[in-house]
Amino acid sequence: MANSLIRQYTGLPLDKPDPGLGGAKTIWAPLLGVRVSGKHLQRPSPQIPAFVDSGSPYCLFHSAVADYLHINLKSGTEAELGGVISAHKEALYFHRVNLTIENTWTIEVFAGFSKKLSVAAILGRAGFFDRFRVRFDHSQSPPEFEIEKIDLIN
Questions:
Q1: Secondary structure, 3-state, the chain
Q2: What digits encode the pLDDT tens for the residues 56-98?
Q3: What's the rounded Cα separation, in Å, for the pair 105 and 107?
């Protein structure tokens, strides 16, 4: 089993040029392919592109993933989710799930699920960054990032 992986960022097309990025029509994002499985379900989800996001305190998934896995969303631990720009907060429900990352590692995480998440998946500090060392390299185009499996920090 590999101890580390290097991946190029994925180019995501923008609807219109981004003035904050010098008019760029593409934004580069660090994405990893993950599969999610519940404790009671044998088959995992299809592979989902997950944003590697050091700004997120949690691993987060859209509620459609919970639906696919037949997880009763509201049976989880309830919390609220807000963003970097103050706005209305949304319900978030935490469940224990297994994540298979890039078909290489499987880890258990306490992940939040929300109907209002704007992407399919986010890999955040609790559950991902405490199990992987992540190095972002923007010195080339497209940028790259490396993840290395580490022991869970308690």
A1: CCCEEEEECEEEEEEEEEHHHCCEEEEEECEEEEEEECCCCCCCCCCEEEEECCCCCECEEEHHHHHHCCCCHHHCEEEEECCCCCCCCEEEEEEEEEEEECCCEEEEEEEEEECCCCCCEEECCECCCCCEEEEEECCCCCCEEEEEECCCCC
A2: 999 999 999 999 999 999 999 999 887 766 667 888 999 999 9
A3: 7
Domain 4-149 has CATH 3.40.47.40: no
Question: CA–CA separation, 10 vs 6, rounded Å?
Answer: 13
Q: Domain residues of the chain, as ranges?
A: 4-149
Name which of 87, 84, 93 is nearest 61 in CA terms. Answer: 93
- Give the number of other Cβ atoms within 10 Å of residue 50's Cβ: 25
- What tokens were used for 49? 């592109």
User: The tokens of 57 are what?
Assistant: 């305190």
- Integer-rounded Cα Rg, in Å, for the chain is 16
Q: Which amino acid is at 104?
A: T
